[in-house]
Amino acid sequence: DTAVSQTPKYLVTQMGNDKSIKCEQNLGHDTMYWYKQDSKKFLKIMFSYNNKELIINETVPNRFSPKSPDKAHLNLHINSLELGDSAVYFCASSQALGAMNTEAFFGQGTRLTVV
Amino acid sequence: ELKVEQNPLFLSMQEGKNYTIYCNYSTTSDRLYWYRQDPGKSLESLFVLLSNGAVKQEGRLMASLDTKARLSTLHITAAVHDLSATYFCAVDPYYGGSQGNLIFGKGTKLSVKP
User: Which top CATH class is A4-97+108-114?
Assistant: First the structure.
């Protein structure tokens, strides 16, 4: 069973389109994240949710909107896609905030290419 | 703002040799994690270091944490080709309490050659 699964794995789309990436975790974790990995492999936090509540919203264009229908799911919707949005997006989850161990478990990534 | 610096960023080793990757961070933290990423793949958790002086070993890899020096090391012993990957350290930036998000170093791309 995949612990953190995200779909799709690959996404190729034209500039200006709107797209969504879905993420689900079956680890029973309370906290979920979206990270972006750029072409130089640098990983940066975008959003953090704890029990469906937004905790961290880094400097990310408001074209990016996360939605957490329940604590096992955190989806990412992107409006008006731009060339610079091309990257690999990773969903991750960890135990509840305040836990000693905040080890993050990552999904397989979604490679987004905007053309 | 927490900065996490890894060095080297690129490492080419011969099989059988030893080497150490360093991870320095700029603010107090007692939680540090090492991950491995193979090309085109996700991040795999290697080590969880949660206290000063923590040392963990798995096969040819050994990780340690010195919170006073704000330094973690990942030591590779007798490298083999299968260890070729990119290794990331990640730090939880909130000492004593956590928002859970990890700040990642830029990664060390390790290439082990015969």
Answer: mainly beta
